[in-house]
Design a protein that fits this description.
29% strand, 10 helices, FAD dependent oxidoreductase, 8-stranded mixed sheet, 409 residues, FAD/NAD-bd_sf, Geranylgeranyl_reductase, binds flavin-adenine dinucleotide
Length: 409
Amino acid sequence: MQYFDVVIVGAGPAGGHCARLLAKLGYSVLLVEQHESFQQNIFSSAATPLETLELFNLPPSVVASFWHKLEIVTTKVHRHWEANNTLGAVFDFAKLRAFLAKDAEINGAKVWLGHRYVKAQQESEKLLISLKPKRGEEITVSSQVLVDATGFARAVMYPDKRQKPKFLKGTGIEYLIEVEQDIYQKYAHSLVFFMGYQWSPKGYSWIFPMQENQFKVGSAWIDAPHKFIAEVKPLKFYIGQIIKDYLKIEDYKLLDVHGSILEYSIGLNDIYYREPNIIAIGDAVSTVNFLGGEGIRHALKGTEIAVPYIENYLNSKCSNFRQYQEEIKSYFAPKWNLSEQISRRVYLEYSDQKIDQGVAYLKYLSLSDLMDILFYYKFEKFTRGLGGYLKSKIGQMLGKIKSLWSNKL
Ligand SMILES: Cc1cc2nc3c(=O)[nH]c(=O)nc-3n(C[C@H](O)[C@H](O)[C@H](O)COP(=O)(O)OP(=O)(O)OC[C@H]3O[C@@H](n4cnc5c(N)ncnc54)[C@H](O)[C@@H]3O)c2cc1C
């Protein structure tokens, strides 16, 4: 039976990064992924601020495009901002995951694609882990530590799906399309977000640029009842509408349709570890920010919090991962709890008019304030924008009073 210090299940951003970091530290690592190729399961839109590349040591080869413009479109309002410098990237999600796994392999890890995790059993200090290859018989390997990096599936922490608690659920679908050069150029460096009842009731939609002449056009919503909207059309309807009525194109090549779900634990009440040697990272412990559905950067960060604890366990410096749970919760909880509350309010309780108004106020914000709200969850900056709006309204009122007064005189 093959032995590994650490077996990591799931080769998404969290699992791949974990394998890479532990392999670089000299541990024997097995990274297991149920899909046979990274070209399968390309579900993520994968937009991220620029800092992600440097923070997590990622090469430009995993990037599909760079952006420096932001646009927000609602039923009645359209706002846009532009910077002179690059603000962020859109990953090629297949290339990103393939790079992380390859880097792990270069540093000595084993990567087994097309292997599904089945179960684990404790035997003295080690775990016996059963894996099912796409073709062939079940295999058992042993390890000191087992990592659940299976995203929303949480396959290690909940081997029986029926025992999963209720999560806040989001669903997203995305078209990868090829368009004419002139249309591509118009949005080649922009992230365009859509909100409001026309484009995306119960969530938001988007156009993200990919490499030459390709866009991702997607739509996502929260799977929960809306205060005002009784019925919504399928997500594909809103994607089609953005392509036809916003981009105004009839003729495009549909290259791929993909999608997935997010399952987020309200109040961050996931199972972070099981005694003594099982630990969960990434979306398996709700590191995705539910307001924007941005999760890659946070899965990578959560992994970097986890790795020193895994190392400590391997070196008998701790006997479980309780402190990891404390550290990761205190890192994420304050902003994540607020983001989740705001997401439910905006996507499920706001009228269309209120969404128009909210986005209209954004014109009082600078681009850096907007980036702080969208990517760093500094919601106090929105209130500052509201201050600008109120100031201008008061200014207008004072102007009117002054002119009425001078007419009287
Ligand atoms: C539609 C959509 C759009 C998104 N857009 C963005 C975006 O623009 N920017 C951003 O930063 N984030 C985005 N996200 C979120 C982001 O993709 C996730 O937060 C991120 O991928 C989480 O990484 P992870 O490694 O924790 O999990 P995942 O990426 O979900 O990886 C989990 C892996 O585990 C594997 N697995 C599951 N069960 C088993 C099993 N039993 N055995 C073996 N392998 C298994 C899966 O196949 C998968 O490869 C989006 C998500 C969705 C659904």
